[in-house]
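Residues and backbone
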Amino acid sequence: MDTFNEMRLRGHEQVVFSHDPSCGYFGIIAIHDTTLGPALGGTRVWPYASTEEALKDVLRLSRGMTYKSAVAGLNLGGGKAVIIADPKRPDRESLFRAHGRFVESLGGRYITAEDVGTSPTDMEFVKRETKHVAGLLNLSGDPSPVTSYGVYVGMKAAAKVKWGKDSLAGKTVAVQGAGKVAFYLMKHLKEEGAKILTCDIDAEKVKHAVEELGATGVATDAIYDAQADIFAPCALGAILNDDTIARLKVGIVAGGANNQLAEERHGVDIEKKGIRYCPDYVINGGGVINVYGELQGWTMDRAKRKAQEIYDTILRVFQIAARDKIPSFQAADRLAEERIKSVMALKRMWVAGDR
């Protein structure tokens, strides 16, 4: 794999490979773009089969964070870190303190947070070595309420475009997953009077949603065949594929899961069926908004007010899609790129201290 060529193709600014033999730390930090601000992105711990596999993942994920922060209107760029290790490794302090030292060496260009295989406790170890870390204990806390609220308002925006009004009362929403984000989303849907179908590989989570929210439980695979108005994927990625798209009987897809399209062509296929697709990194942007709020010292209420803007952002995505005659997932990329280019083009003014 030609690392420099991969960086050039994706527009990355910097990739750092790090190793600390004292604790067996092998990490990669990728900074994609810092036009809008320091690169924010979580640290993922995973037992990658090869360095090439880890590099591909960190490059893909860091680029995605640039676009997610840009469309959310945040003053952040995109970055990501991966540590090649067993996520269940018990001796975590040395591993994450080593990671914190490498984050610190970047001088604030990269801010890390928790991700797959990490936790707020791990971030506390990182904090012992650098201040460039978020997702700490007792600060921003669980991002699920803000993420789910953003999905909810984005769903309402899609309803306005699809049906002419944003009310979800009486609509049937098939929610794939019954975890934290899905449960908070279902609470909003219940309060508005929507009918809820849900599934999860964990039967206890489905039972909880049925008892607490009046949802109707369905089999995990049957969720794709449900007669509903909206499909809300809030579990695994890559669930919009050749098999599932053909089975959907909905007008809108809007959910909190990451990387919902198995391949980009599926974003074209879903719209050929007349389904309005809300790009995942736009509608689930409440998570990064929650972390940004921690960095800025925001209250939960202020973070939710910022997430309210996802409503207008989804409308803007569909406007660009109609204007440029492109699928919504491409329109979301275009919206992010337009914001980055507009800031990059700003004329720099002389200030006292310049030489």
Q: What stands out?
A: The chain has 14 helices and twelve strands.
